[in-house]
Amino acid sequence: MTLRTNRISCAPVFESTELIAFLDSSPIRRGHVQIIPRGHFNYFDDLPVDLASEIVRTGQRIARAQKKLYGVDRAAFLFSGGDIPHAHAHVVPMHEKTDLTSRLYIAEEALTFRPMPTASLGELEAVAEELRPIVELL
Fold it and tell me: Which ranges of the chain does DSSP label H, i.e. alpha helix?
């Protein structure tokens, strides 16, 4: 199932009246999900507490689904919004402890980065079909 939001096409894995969770188009790992409130809030600290709680609760459901589906022990959850002015969260199945990093943990002074690969909508839809039924059960 493909959904067209206000500006982008996406492969949703969960929806409620307050938020939508869909696969990230530049995933860190297969099954990387973004959780975005339907209402606009520029920053994480602008979110009403009840909405932030719903995002965390949904993130926990998605994390349990990712752990079950991908056989990982841990899923990362983080609020973001630095790249775009709309608060959102990410849930990433952690295959390696370095899947999410901080500059504090990197030894090299000069770093180079390659662009994140972009998944096709078809690839995202296939992953959404895997995740959606498990998220619904949890």
Answer: 49-70, 121-137
Of the candidates 16, 22, 3, 24, the residue with the CA atom closest to the CA atom of residue 116: 24
The model's pLDDT over 95-108, given as tens digits with 9 standing for 90+, comes to 988 888 766 667 88
What's the CA gap between 132 and 116, in Å, rounded?
A: 24
Q: 69 — phi, psi (to 5°)?
A: -70, -40
pTM > 0.85: no
User: Buried b vs exposed e over 114-133: b needs ≥16 C-beta within 10 Å?
Assistant: eeeeebebeebbebbeebbe
